[in-house]
Structures are given as C-alpha cells and as structure tokens.
Design goal:
The chain is α+β, with helices and mostly antiparallel strands. 38% of the residues lie in helices and 22% in strands. Helix 5 runs antiparallel to helix 10 and helix 10 (340-364) packs across helix 11. The chain starts with 7 loop residues before the first strand and ends with a helix. The model has no long low-confidence stretch (mean pLDDT 93).
C-alpha cells in the first residue's frame, strides 16, 4: 500500500523558472529545494545524446553551454494552447511530443517532492496564468486541459488550478496585519497577470475568497518577449536582420524572428531550415553577415545567443549600466552592446502594453490609484528596472512591495483551498 502524505503541493510551472511549495497539517507552507539548496530552477530539459540521459534545470542548461551533444528544451509552457503541443520532435533516435516533454519535466518535479517528503504527494494545485492564450477562450481551455493531462499522467490523483496572481496574493496575505486592497502584479517569462484583491488577517479565515477578488486581467507578454525584442534589436542585425541586399530589399526576416524565440529556435536547426537559410545568400550585400547566420544554424548557437541576451538584460537592469553580449563563439571578438537607453527604447512598447493591462485591472475593480494600499510584485520579470519605473509612473504614490519573485506563487498555491 502506498502512503500519501497529508497536505497540498503547490507547483508554479513557469515559462522560465519553476518552484514548488508544500503545506502540511501544521499549516505553514514551505518552499522545497529543487537543485541543491536552490528553491527555484529553470524550466529546462536537456536530452544528452552522448549517454542518453535526461537533465533538468541548471544542470540542463549547464550541459548545453558546455557543448555536450544533445537537445535543450526551454519555454515549454509557451506551447500550451498551441497546435505545436501535440507535434513530435526528434530526440535521439525517437520522436517525442512536446506534451510528453512537459510531462517529463513535471515528473522530475514530483520525484524531487517525493524525495523531500519521503513519500509521493497525492494532491497538487497548479498555477495558471489569467490567460494562456489571449482573446481565445477555446484555446485557453484546451491549454489548461493539456496541462491537467500532463500532471495526471505523472501520478497525481487530485489536480486543481489557481490563477497565479491570486496565489501570489495569498502568499502576501500571510504577512499582513490589517486589511488592505492590493494590486498583485505577477510578471513571469511568458505572461503578465494582475489581480485587485482585498486581503487581511480576518479574510484569511474564510474558505470562499471569491468576493475578495475585485478584478483580474492578463496579457501574453513576459520576460521571454523582452529577451526576444532585445535579441532582434541588438544581436540579429549582426546576422543580417534588416540588412539591405543588392536590390535594396531587406533580407527576409522569418529566420531571425524564430532564432530570437526560445521555443522556436530548435526548428531552425532542421535540414530544411538550414537549406532555406543557405539560399538567402544572394539577398545579402555583405556575405560576412550571412556566414555568421550559417555558423549559428549549423553549430546550433541559437540557444546560447538567447542565453547571453537574457544575462545581459539582467546585468543592465541590476547595474544600471551598459554591458556587452558575448558572441565570440560565432566570430572571434564579436560582441553586441546593450545600454540602459537601448533597453528602455526597445522595451517601451511592451512595457506600456503591460502597464495598461495593470491599469485596466484597477479600472475593472471600480477603483482609482488612491484606493490601493499597495502594489505587490512577484515573478522574476517584475525585477526589471525599466518595468518598475514604468509601473511607478502609472501609479504615482502607491507603495510598491517586492515579494519572493521566484517562490511567492508556489507558496500561495500551497495555501489555496
């Protein structure tokens, strides 16, 4: 007979990073270590072609960056609600569906929870964005159904869902000493979600919190979209993006957009895509740029480039200073630059659209800025300095509280009932 521990596992399956929290009978949720002491790990799977092993998180990315032969998969959550989800891709000598790859990652999370608890958890609350897919309820419902199927396929008996920004609010509520009206801002790798909610010690005691949720909104913009835009603006021109050819026409841009999009990069390594890229040579006035593009495709450097852009974005934000994007694997000494002004200019449209969604949430709640006691930030992308500046400009005078950016949603999921 299998023993199932009494309690709830909360899983924040994120586009870029994932986290888990456990709420046992004692009533206090705790984050679970996923890699060593790390309480969150990248949502990444690496299929090692050299020894047919499978790796996850930082270990997966490390193997890829070290040059181990194999296949790196990231941004898996972005495929939910997409026709690509049920398609198969070549992994070693077999075809595997993206749905099964998501299940493989979730199985690894469940195994780590089992090791931590000493027995397999039975009940799980999964986080979900306000919208998996914008303006398409049917595809959105299908995305949740696909995730539910993947979760149940790895052994969970009881599966429920909670909106990620509401989960973040439930975590924040644990630290409040008085009733507050809060705008919860959850910026992840793939989506930005917002909730206006009433929180407080007395409200925590109620099993039904539906009346406390005043409004929710969401938009399919997140950290990977910021990375993609910076990649296109700062890096892809070095491979020929927007390059004018002999007939004063731009080089066709499709390959560059796919190379800058995490979950589409691997398609550009296929023989057909490489052949199509090779045929673009006549569209180039500068053959050096085409040589760089072919190097990226044939040597499979697309993921490495995306990683370098992401790290440069973080450095630029944290240090408020210009930084380099190392592209020396493509060509000795090759480097792109990213300045604070570059980042602001390139991301402003995405940031404005995101903050408009936040303002719409407050409007739907029938409130004004003056009605808010705080804005609570969670999700790794909410740490971006340019986002926080844009948000504060739209909500002048409202205190901004930064929560556990990578673990807050998981903790709140464990508290969900």
């Amino acid at each position: 007979m299998n023993f199932f521990p009494a309690g709830t596992l909360g899983i924040d399956f994120g586009t870029s990073n994932s986290a888990m929290a456990w709420l046992g009978p004692q009533g206090d949720a705790r984050l679970m270590a996923l890699e060593g002491e790390a309480l969150a790990m990248p949502t990444a799977v690496f299929y090692n072609a050299e020894d047919n092993s499978t790796h996850f998180g930082r270990d997966a990315i490390g193997h890829y960056l070290e040059g181990t032969e194999g296949r790196l998969m990231r941004s898996l959550k972005s495929l939910l609600g997409s026709p690509l989800l049920l398609e198969t891709t070549q992994i070693g000598h077999q075809q595997i569906s993206f749905q099964d790859i998501i299940a493989t990652f979730l199985a690894a999370l469940r195994e780590r929870a089992t090791q931590s608890l000493g027995s397999a958890p039975r009940r799980v609350v999964m986080g979900r964005p306000v919208h998996f897919v914008d303006d398409d309820p049917e595809r959105d419902a299908q995305a949740e159904a696909s995730l539910r199927q993947a979760v149940k396929s790895v052994g969970f008996d009881e599966v429920s869902f909670q909106l990620e920004p509401i989960a973040a609010a439930l975590d924040y509520e644990q630290r409040l000493t008085q009733e507050s009206t809060v705008l919860v801002v959850d910026l992840g790798g793939g989506t930005s979600d917002f909730t206006v909610v009433r929180l407080g010690p007395e409200r925590m005691r109620h099993a039904d919190r539906s009346r406390d949720i005043l409004a929710t909104t969401g938009v399919h913009i997140g950290g990977t979209d910021y990375d993609r835009q910076l990649n296109l603006a700062q890096v892809m021109p070095l491979l020929g993006y927007k390059h004018m050819g002999p007939e004063q026409r731009e080089v066709p841009s499709g390959v560059f957009f796919d190379l800058a999009t995490w979950h589409l990069i691997h398609w550009q390594y296929q023989a057909k895509a490489i052949s199509q890229a090779k045929n673009l040579r006549s569209n180039y006035s500068d053959p050096c740029l085409h040589d760089r593009l072919m190097c990226v495709l044939t040597e499979r450097y697309g993921h490495l480039m995306a990683h370098e852009v992401e790290q440069a974005k973080i450095r630029c934000s944290v240090n408020s200073a210009s930084t380099g994007i190392d592209l020396s694997v493509i060509e000795r000494g090759l480097q792109a630059e990213l300045s604070v002004s570059d980042m602001q200019a390139q991301l402003q449209d995405l940031l404005d659209r995101t903050v408009r969604c936040a303002r719409e949430c407050v409007k739907r709640a029938g409130l004004t800025n003056a009605s808010l006691d705080a804005i609570y930030l969670t999700g790794g992308s909410s740490a971006l300095s340019t986002f926080q500046q844009t948000l504060q400009a739209a909500f002048v005078g409202v205190p901004v509280v930064e929560g556990d950016l990578f673990g807050g949603v998981a903790l709140g999921l464990a508290y969900s009932r």
